[in-house]
Write a structure and sequence with these properties.
The protein is mainly beta. The chain is built from ten helices and 56 strands. InterPro entries: Beta-barrel_TonB, Beta-barrel_TonB_sf, CarboxyPept-like_regulatory, Plug_dom, Plug_dom_sf.
Length: 1040
């Protein structure tokens, strides 16, 4: 074959390969020149999705019908500009012009259809681009909602630098967060709030509070958080301050993926700096289960009646049915020796270094058409490790020292003072997996799951003086502990539309959630130093353990709470008075099971070596193997052992009544109607809730046990309580459309707050936070609450709002924590007569162009602020009032509600340039002084304001990458709880008597995220138009 023949043959082969390649690529090229149109058609009369509506792309003659939730999707539209027509029988048609379809990029258009027969076809220009999980989208939900509500979107959560739902809630109007976990709404604590995840109530992982811990929800998993502030019958009736609904991310309209990593530090915990650590908990916090920290098998398997009890000590019998004393019984002594040495050695915190901290997360999601059906999913994982620490904190306690006979002024003095060093290392792992299946246009079934696991290791040392023991006595306290908290939730739900039955909508859900708390081996001890001087002037220091009980204490507790529920809602639209109306009925069954257990041990010293100091080595020697259990024997003249000598021996102080199981059952049904009367919307109805709260401990009841503290289980009477309630809760909400973008709302509702498991259980536990016993009260009644609300709101621009609210709440029989023994700090719970809460809220969010700043800058800069003013008054009676009037005979018989701040202020200035991928924000937050601890009868303790200023910024680089940075607490505000000493004589010039103070430091973080699109552009989203005059479509009058 010649060269030219060979060359021609090769050319022909190349041509065939090129043709084959072109043929292969043509479909892909064709697809690359098409895009997708999707969105939601909203029922303008009732706010939900409108199933079965027609969506027509006029120029193409193609379209789709909306699905059961009002969503629609049209694939493979050629790139271009189109007119889209939205229609439904009996509703005014919407026409959207200039809809841009881009190659590979889904465009989203949300529209609102209404039923006013006087309105002709509405034509709107599709101009503004927004995100479906943005503030604009949430404001549209708020405008159409039946209730007074506030919300924060994923967009704002990300921009504010929030790491979890607790951080995010600090930006919500009228909400404050205590300890980064517990949310107070409108000045009312967790008792008066309810928390849902995707519409289902969650259990709690806190043994003592009716509170969901918001730090369990990583920010990256959140779509939005909506706080309902007025009650409608289709929601649980057990709230007054607010119902907080956390919504996790939904699946996208196109394939998305993201990966992010970040690191950071605090000025109080710089990597490599020295901090106190717990040497026992181990090197890694990314683990599940207590491991070596759990109650050892020997202690767990030994019946409690085989232990030495606090009332018997070594002078008691060696066990059931035995006569000799323990120290004279070989078998009993051996058993006690084994039990005493079963726990790991008691050691003090040691010096360590701040480890590297950071987080990593990833997610992936898509929507896949399957014929006329579709499957959507999103999966996410996150892991985080952090450290919070401070050195140089202070803790102090006051005591009453007398009253001036002339002025009557009460004098107080510092009885305890400690310098405080503390460090908490934490780790969190979490996951989310959501799956939805759309079956035709009228059915959707979804499964939402979430898992979160947090571990914390704490070490703390406090050194100072204790004047209670004797004037100027040096005391060192040590505390080490480990905590695991876990939340798991799975929810199966369905949404169905039945056009054949008058467009009846059927929604159902089944939910199973579980929370777990494990606190294994909390170790604490207090060491007193005594200095004595002999006759020659030589000083000798001795050391002894002090406290109640005086020996080193080992505390274990675990809690598991499981909540299962099922709910069914039916919604039927109809016509009334010539306007759209809706009837909604439904029901719910819910069961919560709780299992709580604890073990409490301490060491008693019989004889042995003296404590040689306050450091870790001295404590390790003092409680080492050579000084625990049997350390010697006594023999008779024949060499026979007559007595066993003990060093430290273990005492089991666990109480049977502190181990309890509980169940809480709710059966609810409701009916409500929503009727449009011109510009007025009336939402009225009632909810019935029947509930039963049952708690049974392991302690047997006696003949002297009060009847309300006895529960019979399988014929055996236990210490416990069984309470049932039946309540009808009416609700009236009115929404008057002053204009297409302005509403006036009014509401009058009745809600309730029930006692918690811990409050009603006849259980007495030691509360380490207040250094006193905490006693439950089986006689508690539930609280009934009357709520009155008024709000004016104006949605004057996309993403903008001006609003003012006023509210009043009357609480009958509110439950408060009261003082039962002032001398020993013992507390319990009781119903007080009544409480009143008054408040006002103001909110503004506007682009600076509204204030005259022209050009592009005015459109990209936004200013937001919200202010809440609250005043509360609760009646006080009994010992608390008597104690207060002992100090001040003219003391009022009312005080503030615990946890209520008189003011809450949030403000932010944000800049957003989506074309350049630039975003930045300045965020400010401050809460007024709030009552944290009721005096006993010392002055009340208030948490003082700690203004916080945060800075955040992000910049998109190289297309798919985004750099993010934040600085939190720029002002470096400290945490401070202080006694309210107004009217007291401090004996000096100080105006502040600190209870607890420590530095929070300034936190810095830097991260990078990547969002590979694989050729799929970011979705373009267009606001739902209601009318040409309304920036977000809040119009109330329209029709066909």
């Amino acid at each position: 074959m010649s060269f030219w023949t060979s060359r021609a043959s090769r050319a022909s082969e190349h041509a065939r390969r090129a043709a084959a390649l072109v043929a292969f690529l043509l479909p892909s090229l064709a697809l690359a020149q098409t895009g997708t149109l999707s969105g939601t058609v909203v029922d303008g009369d009732f706010g939900g999705g409108l199933p079965g509506a027609s969506v027509l792309v006029v120029e193409q003659g193609t379209g789709a019908a909306t699905e059961v939730d009002g969503n629609y999707r049209i694939d493979r539209l050629p790139v271009g500009t189109y007119t889209v027509r939205y229609s439904f029988v009996g509703y005014a048609t919407q026409v959207v012009n200039n809809v841009q379809i881009e190659a590979g990029a889904p465009t989203q258009i949300n529209v609102t259809l209404t039923t006013d027969a006087l309105l002709e076809e509405v034509v709107v220009e599709a101009e503004e681009i927004i995100a479906t999980n943005s503030e604009v989208g949430l404001l549209r939900v708020r405008a159409r909602a039946a209730q007074v509500s506030d919300a924060i979107s994923a967009e704002t959560i990300s921009q504010s630098g929030a790491s979890d739902a607790g951080d995010a809630m600090e930006r919500v109007t009228g909400a404050s967060v205590q300890g980064g976990q517990y949310v107070f709404v409108r000045g009312l604590g967790d008792r008066y709030a309810n928390t849902q995840l995707n519409g289902a109530v969650l259990p709690t992982a806190d043994p003592d509070r009716r509170a969901v811990q918001f730090d369990l929800f990583p920010a990256g998993f959140l779509e939005n958080i909506v706080t309902l502030k007025t009650f409608t019958p289709d929601k649980p009736g057990s709230f007054s301050g607010g119902l907080v609904d956390i919504t996790t991310r939904s699946f996208p309209d196109a394939f998305t993926s993201s990966f992010s990593v970040s690191t950071g530090f605090s000025t109080e915990a710089v990597p490599g700096d020295a901090i106190v650590i717990d040497p026992v908990q181990g090197s890694s916090l990314f683990r599940f289960g207590a491991g070596d920290l759990a109650v050892p098998g020997l202690l767990a398997d030994t019946p409690r009646d085989q232990f030495i009890r606090p009332t018997t000590r070594l002078d008691g019998p060696g066990g059931p049915g035995t006569g000799p004393l323990v120290r004279q019984d070989a078998a009993a002594s051996q058993r006690l020796d084994d039990l005493s040495n079963a726990l790991t050695p008691m050691v003090a915190p040691t010096q360590g270094t701040v480890p590297f901290t950071g987080s990593v997360s990833l997610s992936i999601g898509d929507r896949v058409p399957v014929g006329r059906n579709a499957v959507g999913y999103i999966v996410g994982l996150t892991a985080d490790q952090g450290v919070s620490a401070y050195d140089g904190g202070t803790l102090a306690r006051l005591d009453l020292t007398g009253r001036d006979a002339t002025t009557g002024q009460v004098a107080v003095d510092t009885t305890q003072f400690r310098t405080d060093q503390r460090a908490t290392q934490s780790a969190q792992v979490g996951g989310i997996a959501n799956l939805a299946v759309q079956l035709g246009s009228y059915n959707e079934v979804a499964l939402n799951t979430l898992f979160s696991h947090i571990t914390e290791s704490q070490a703390r040392t406090l050194a100072g003086v204790d004047n209670v023991l004797s004037a100027g006595t040096p005391v060192t306290d040590i505390v080490t502990g480990y905590t695991e908290r876990t939340l798991g939730s799975a929810q199966l739900r369905g949404e169905h539309a039945l056009p054949a039955l008058g467009n009846l909508e059927v929604d159902w859900r089944a939910n199973l959630s579980r929370t777990q708390l494990d606190q294994p081996d909390l170790r604490q001890a207090a060491i007193r130093s005594n200095v004595s001087v002999d006759e020659d002037g030589n000083e000798t220091t001795s050391y002894a353990l002090v406290g109640t009980p005086p020996g080193p204490q080992r505390y274990f507790r675990d809690l598991e709470e499981t909540l299962g529920s099922g709910a069914l809602d039916l919604s039927l639209p109809f016509r009334a008075f010539g306007n759209g109306a809706q009837l909604k009925v439904g029901g719910l069954v819910e069961r919560t099971d709780r299992a709580y257990g604890e073990r409490f041990f301490f060491y008693e010293l019989d004889r042995g070596v003296a404590l040689g100091g306050t450091d870790g080595d001295a404590l390790a020697t003092y409680l080492g193997p050579d000084n625990v259990g049997v350390i010697g024997t006594r023999t008779n003249s024949a060499g026979e052992v007559t007595q066993y000598e003990f060093g430290h021996y273990l005492i089991d102080a666990t109480r049977d009544q502190n181990q309890y199981d509980g169940t809480f059952d709710v059966a609810a049904g409701y009916g409500m109607v929503e009727v449009g009367l011109g510009r007025l919307r009336l939402i009225a109805g009632a909810r019935y809730e029947g509930s039963r709260l049952l708690v049974a401990s392991q302690a047997l009841a006696t003949a002297d046990t009060p009847a309300d503290s006895v529960v019979t289980v399988d014929g055996t009477a236990f210490l416990g309580t069984d309470r049932s309630y039946n309540d009808v809760l009416p609700s009236l909400n009115l929404v008057y459309g002053l204009s297409d973008a302005m509403n006036l709302r009014a509401a009058a509702t009745r809600t309730l707050a029930r006692p918690t498991f811990r409050e009603i259980a006849p259980v007495t536990t030691y509360d380490f936070t207040s250094d006193g016993a905490l006693q439950g009260n089986p006689a508690l009644e539930r609280t009934l609450i009357t709520n009155l609300d008024l709000r004016w709101e104006w949605f004057n621009q996309p993403g903008g709002i001006l609003a003012a609210s006023a509210y009043y709440k009357r609480l009958d029989n509110p439950i408060e924590r009261i003082i039962t023994d002032p001398e020993n700090g013992a507390t319990s719970y009781a119903n007080v007569d009544a409480a009143d809460v008054f408040g006002a809220e103001f909110e503004a969010r506007q682009r600076l162009g509204t204030f005259g700043l022209g050009g592009v800058l005015g459109e990209r800069l936004s200013l937001g602020a919200n202010l809440s003013l609250t005043q509360s008054s609760i009646s006080i009676t009994g010992r608390e009032l008597a104690a207060r009037r002992e100090l001040d005979p003219s003391a009022p018989d009312t005080r503030d509600l615990q946890g209520q701040s008189p003011y809450l202020l949030n403000a932010n200035l944000s800049y957003d340039d989506p074309l350049r991928g630039t975003s930045a924000g300045v965020f400010f937050n401050v809460a007024g002084p709030r009552l944290s601890r009721v005096g006993n009868p010392l002055p009340d303790v208030y948490e003082r304001p700690a203004p916080q200023l945060d800075l955040t910024a992000s910049q998109q680089v190289f297309g798919a990458f985004t750099l993010k940075g934040s600085i939190k607490n720029v002002l470096g505000s400290d945490y401070l709880e202080a006694y309210d000493v107004s009217g007291f004589d401090l004996g000096g010039p100080s105006e502040v008597a600190p209870f607890l103070r420590y530095a929070r430091g300034t936190q810095f973080s830097l991260g990078i995220s990547v969002n590979p699109s694989f050729g799929v552009g970011a979705p373009a989203s267009i606001p739902a138009p209601g009318s040409s005059a309304s920036p977000i479509g809040t119009g109330t009058a329209s029709g066909d």
